[in-house]
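Lab notebook page, bench 4
Experiment: in silico fold of construct C2
Operator: M.H.
Input chain length: 380 residues
Purpose: comparison with the prior construct
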Amino acid sequence: MGNNSAQSKRHVRRIVVGLIILALLALLGWRIVGAMLVKAGRARLPIEAVPVAVAPVTRETAPEELRAFGNAEASATVSIRSQITGVITVINIEEGQDVKQGDLLFSIDSRPLAAALKEAEANLAKNKVQFENAEKGRVRQEELLKKGFASEDDFDKAKAESEALAASMRANEAAIDNARVQLEYCSIRAPINGRTGAILIHKGNLVQANDLSLITINQLQPIEVAFGVPQQFLSKIKERMAKTKLAVRAHVPNTETNEIGILTFVDNSVDRTTGMIQLKALFTNETAQLWPGQFLEVTVVLGVKTNALIIPSRAVQDGQKGPFVYVVKPDQMVEPRNVTVERTFGESSIIAQGLNEAETVAVDGQLRLKPGAKVEIKGN
C-alpha cells in the first residue's frame, strides 16, 4: 500500500511539471509569433512625416552690435531754492508740469524789497544834488585859485568834498543794483526746460534764503541713458568713436518703444570689482518715452559685418553638447548639427561654424524631431 501511494504521487508531479513546461513553451511561442506579426505590420505602415517650418541659411550684411542694460537719467536736474527770505504769495505751476526756461514758478512777497529799492533811489537822488553843488564849489575854488584869490587849502577841501560825494553816488548806484536783483529774486523762474516734480512748499509759508528745496526740475529732452559694458569692448568702442558717432538704441522692455541716440561719454576708469566700463548716450526723446530711472535694454551699434552667415534665432536649440540645429536634407530627412553662434541681433543669429550657405534648417516643430526623422515642410 505504501509503495503504491508514493508511486502515485510521483506520477502526478511528473504530469503537473509536464503541463507547466508545455504552457511556458506555448506562451513563448505566442510572444515570438506576435512580435513577428507586429514587426511585419510596422514594416508595412508608412513612416509619418513631422510637419516643420524651415528657413534657408543665407549670407547677409549684419549690424555689429553690443547689448547691455541701463537706466535713463535726466540730462540736467535742478533743485529750486529761494535766494531771499520771504513769504510765498503765489505758486504758478502744478506738480508734473512741463516748463520752459524763464517760466515763473513761485512769487515771494516783494513789498519789503520794493521799499528798499525806493530808499536806495532816494539816497542816490539826494547825493546827486549834493554832488552837483559840491562840484560847482570845486570849480569856483579852482577859478579863484588861478586868479590868486583863493588858497590851495580851500581848493583841496572843495575837491575832496566833490570826490566824496561822487563816491557816495557810486555806492548808491550799487545799492540800487543790489536792490533790483533782490527784487527780481521775488520771482523764482525755471532755469532750464524740463518737468517739475512734487511741490515741497505751500502758499503762505516763509522761506529762508538758500534753505529747503521748493521743487526739482528734471530735463527730459534731451535725456541720457547710462549703462555698462565689459572692459574687453573698450578698445573697439574707442576705435569706432574716433572715426564716427556711434548710434545707440534704447528699448523699453515689453513695449514697442525704441529710441535712437548717440554715444557721448566713456568713463575714465574701469570698475575693478566688476570689470565694467560705464558709458552714456544722449537721446532727443522728442516723444518723452524715456523717463528718469527707467530700466532699458541698450544696444550699441559698432558697425556692420558683411557676408555673415545668418539663420533665424528660433532655429537654434540647446543640447548636451551645446547649441545645435536640425538641418533638413534634400530627401526631407533631418540631421542634428552642432553650431557655434557668434552673436544674435534682433530675431536672427550669426553662425560662425557648423552650417553652409543655402542649407535649410527647421525653425518650428523641433520638439517632435529626432535624427533621421522624415519631415513635411509647411508654411512659416
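Observations: Residues 1-45 form one domain. The chain has four domains: 1-45, 51-61+307-378, 66-74+219-306, 79-207.
Next step: discuss at group meeting.
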